[in-house]
Amino acid sequence: MKSICYGFREGSICKGNGYKPPNLHKWGPGVRDVYALHYIVSGKGYLKTCHTTFPVETGESFIIFPHREVYYYPDPQDPWEYYWIEFNNCAETSRLLSMIDFAPGSPVVQACPQDFRPLFHLVKTAGMEPFERERSDAGLHLLLSYYMEHYPSDKAFLKKDYVLSAREFIESNFWKPSLSVLDVVEFVKIERSYLFRLFKEATGTSISGYLTAFRIQRACELLKTSQLSVKSLAYSVGYQDPMYFSKVFKKVTSSTPSEYKKAFNTGSTE
């Protein structure tokens, strides 16, 4: 039975992918100029690199690093079956792989409950069209994001920025009248008082204060660029009561929405 192999257009992050049925195929020793990620569906095999032999079996994955000498081969009694994908050695792939617990000296990750086969299938042939190339690269990003989830590196843990996550959540949902501090806490998933302390230290304000300031900042931008009524303006930034919105706006800016818009228009024509 022949292996299935697909090619990718030059310029795509993905360079090729395929499926290898159980057989005695081996490769190396030699070096590649791309990354090559392998996912073992069944059977066993061995990867030799960095002067070490790593046994690999069903459910596990291994990666070949660019410019590292490797030799991999199946177990003769129980040859492996696997999916593979190759991708460029570039800044984007280096960034993604830095968040996964792969390293030249530890290129194998153990089996986990996640079946990665459907994700390998998502990486389609790039073809000639730009949208096809983007889809193939998007498939790779999705695949690696699952490896990041199940095999996070120390760097991935360090990059957990709770304050940034809270701010991004607020800035994406500020327009919802129902948005509350509790929603932010539940999204970030850490203890409430700990998040409050981190947020205050990083921003100089509370979560509720940041939400109010962001809403009013957005309202100011809309007053400068649109002709919305106060009612529409209030609703656009998360306030259902126009009178309450005007009260909050004046407290923050020392002007009513109408006064602010008039002052801006006068200043812009001088």
From TrEMBL:
Which domain of life does the UniProt lineage start with? Bacteria
TM helices/strands, residue ranges: none
UniProt cross-references to SMART domains, sorted A to Z: HTH_ARAC (SM00342)
For this UniProt record, the keywords arranged alphabetically read as follows:
DNA-binding, Transcription, Transcription regulation
| Recorded GO MF terms | DNA-binding transcription factor activity; sequence-specific DNA binding
Query: A Pfam family in this protein?
Result: HTH_18
Q: Which Gene3D superfamilies match?
A: Homeodomain-like (1.10.10.60), Regulatory protein AraC (2.60.120.280)
Which CDD domains does UniProt cross-reference here?
Answer: cupin_MmsR-like_N
SUPFAM superfamilies to which the protein is assigned, alphabetical:
Homeodomain-like (SSF46689), Regulatory protein AraC (SSF51215)
The record places domain HTH araC/xylS-type at 164-263
Family matches, as PANTHER family: ARAC-FAMILY TRANSCRIPTIONAL REGULATOR (PTHR43280), MMSAB OPERON REGULATORY PROTEIN (PTHR43280:SF30)
Q: What protein name is recorded for this chain? A: AraC family transcriptional regulator
- Could you tell me which species this protein originates from? Paenibacillus graminis
